[in-house]
Design a protein that fits this description.
This protein is an alpha/beta fold and 394 residues long. It contains 14 helices and eleven strands. Helix 7 links the parallel strand 5 and strand 6. Bound molecules: pyridoxal-5'-phosphate and (2S)-2-hydroxy-3-(4-hydroxyphenyl)propanoic acid. (2S)-2-hydroxy-3-(4-hydroxyphenyl)propanoic acid binds next to loops. This is Aromatic amino acid aminotransferase.
Length: 394
């Protein structure tokens, strides 16, 4: 049966991690996959997570199934974290999913049954898995202008002019904050403009938020999403605990549906549960139980927020430090890195220049020019700056 299959297409980011592991050079640097590393180059378990899971181990009395929607305390906590204080808070429903990846797929499947002719509009460029996940669910995909390769910022005028063409059969996907891969975020005024367009032209806003806390702080990073949620009848959200709780491998996220009434949101949630049943049935428990424990405990929440904040601060320092190191080489070509938000920056380097970084400097970055700032170490900034300047001038 399977011999007729053509070979698999490799994931450009995950395959980079494999190549990195196999590289024997001792001065190698992994700036590929989006994982936060501390100044020792490690991704430690966050303190609040450690405490919560120790408590869970002591308290947990059973490993019996939880249910199709996962942990409802977690689901409520995710809605509180994202929607508290908005009019959407009382007309939303959430489903725990295996990471935001699971949420993206469940929401895509939901759109495919509700409106099979849906087209999902993605930023150009977008997270590597957005297009394949939407297409796997049978949806059409198109891209709207987003990143200006000259300024390395968002071209808001071009973006809004294109989104103005989206109608009732369209879904416009926005990154909640810390755009992957570019690092260029839209301004609050852009969120307001998109909200107006959604209400005027009838497209459904879809927000994917995977880095809350890494841009301008927990509350600020959700401000655009909250403006939308407050002002539209219907929207959908995919959210992740991989980065801001450091729970990557625990596969912890949620799909949230905001509707005009709680009853409608819960009906959509029920349909997602049907879809989950036919896919993975139930999400894994551990990561969600940890998050629920943290967010239901004031002290643990504080510990978590402080650590997240220090990770965020360190990221800002790394961005500024890198720009300074490049400036010290006599170049201002990468000053935009200090203006980007979150873990990533698209550098503007070509695939050939990225290949040179890998061959000549043992620096691994994604072929689209993306580097993971959160994977940097302070003592390696000069080395990276030299590599960036050298390959960009070649
Ligand atoms: N959405 C975006 C924009 C991402 O960058 C990622 C990757 O981390 C995901 C979704 C998937 O995250 P998760 O690990 O929660 O599945
Ligand atoms: O963009 C990233 O690096 C993260 C992690 O197939 C990731 O979002 C990368 C590739 C992939 C899934 C997750």
């Amino acid at each position: 049966m399977f011999k007729q299959l053509s070979p698999a297409q490799l994931d450009p980011i995950l395959s980079l991690s494999i190549a990195y592991r196999e590289d024997s050079r001792t001065d190698k640097m992994d700036l590929g996959i989006g994982v936060y590393r501390n100044s020792q180059g490690e991704t430690p378990i966050m303190q609040a997570v450690q405490t919560a899971q120790t408590a869970l181990l002591a308290e947990q009395k059973t490993k019996a199934y939880v249910g199709l929607a996962g942990d409802e305390v977690f689901n409520q906590s995710m809605m509180d974290l994202l929607l508290s204080g908005t009019s959407a808070h009382g007309r939303a429903a959430a489903v725990q999913t295996p990471g935001a990846s699971g949420a993206l797929r469940m929401l895509a499947d939901l759109m495919a049954i509700a409106q099979p002719e849906t087209t999902v509009w993605l930023t150009d460029p977008s997270y590597v898995n957005h297009k394949p996940v939407m297409e796997a669910a049978g949806l059409k995909v198109r891209f709207y202008p987003y990143f200006d390769r000259q300024t390395k910022q968002v071209n808001s005028d071009a973006m809004l002019a294109e989104i103005a063409k989206a109608g009732p059969k369209d879904v416009v996907l926005l990154h909640g904050c810390c755009h992957n891969p570019t690092g260029a975020d839209i301004r609050f005024e852009d969120w307001q403009a998109v909200t107006e367009l959604a209400n005027k032209n009838g497209f459904l806003p879809f927000v994917d938020i995977a880095y809350q806390g890494f841009g301008d702080g927990l509350a600020q990073d959700a401000a655009g999403l909250q403006h939308l949620a407050d002002n539209v009848e219907e929207m959908i959200i995919a959210t992740s605990c991989s980065k801001n709780f450091g729970l990557y491998r625990e596969r912890t996220g949620a799909a949230i549906i905001v509707s005009d009434s709680l009853q409608e949101a819960q009906k959509a949630k029920g349909r997602i549960l049907n879809l989950a049943r036919a896919t993975y049935t139930m999400p894994p428990d551990h990561g969600a139980a940890v998050v629920a424990k943290i967010l239901q405990d004031e002290k643990l929440t504080q510990v978590w927020q402080q650590e997240l904040n220090s990770m965020h601060q360190r990221l800002l320092n790394l961005r500024q430090g890198l720009v300074k190191a490049v400036n010290a080489q006599g170049s201002d070509a990468f000053d935009f890195i200090a203006k980007h938000k979150g873990m990533f920056s698209v550098t503007g380097l070509s695939p050939e220049q990225i290949a040179r970084m890998r061959e000549d400097f043992a620096i691994y970055a994604v072929a689209d020019g993306r580097i993971n700032i959160a994977g940097l170490q302070e003592q390696k900034l000069d080395y990276l700056a030299n590599a960036l300047v050298t390959v960009s001038q070649s």
